Amino acid sequence: MDVEALYTNIPPTDGIQAVRNFIPDDATAQLVAELCAFILTHNYFKFDDNIYLQISGIAMGTRIAPQYANIFMVDLEQCFLSSRPLMLLLCLCYIDDIIWTHGKETLEKFHHDFNSFHPTINLSLDQSTQEVHFLDTTVQISDGHINTTLHRKPTDRYAYLHASSFHPRHTTRSIVYSQALRYNRICSNPSDRDQHLRNLHQAFSKLQYLHEEIRKQIRARRVPRSLLLQDNPKKETNRTPLALTYSPQLKPHQCNIRDLQRILDNDPTLSQALGDRSVLTHRQPANLKHSHQ
Hints:
three-stranded antiparallel β-sheet, two-stranded antiparallel sheet, alpha+beta, 44% helix, single chain, 11 strands, 17% strand
């Protein structure tokens, strides 16, 4: 099940009250509620030379939108589920996606009752005894086994970064590699995975990526899937970032930085202050949008 247009269908009064219910301290709850109210009542935007004010829901691009929607849905679900005579076996929520494992008849009744519970919040229902889509994964049951494959929405157009974009080369390479790695993680059948990777190869070719470079990065298919399914905590690092505005002319300076690193390592004060070896990072240069502003 999926909430239909969740962000734009949250009534401001209900959303703010959910925030109040979520925060135990009254003073903090009052402050956060006032800040949320300010955001909800000042969402102005421009379209076709006209200025508009959004009066219902919350803007999808607002930074607080995911947390605000989560809090609202948790509050709404708790109110609804507390009135149900049937205890759910399992109900998982990821912002606005719900998984149900308690049988078809009770599922349909739950769906009908929930859609009658709130005036603006409705759940769309996608049910099957053979497969179900969740986020970017299709879960299938075949011969008593659970298989997974890639799920792409009909609106997906492989909108990745174009090869001619003004970005470091390692960025475009990593996009291909990370997508191939994702395909390898999701697809439980190797032949099915390879078919999706061929489609991915064609998509990047249309974006002017070099065929040989695509082929190299799709080597991610060789990574054992058992390793990809393990939880790998993010490694902590003490490396000091050296942030520079990106330009292709900076590439020779990477060697200079490595050569100068020995000077920093040998200086007792600087080596202690900077920690491990510095890492060169890039910030986005000014583009046409920034120039226009």
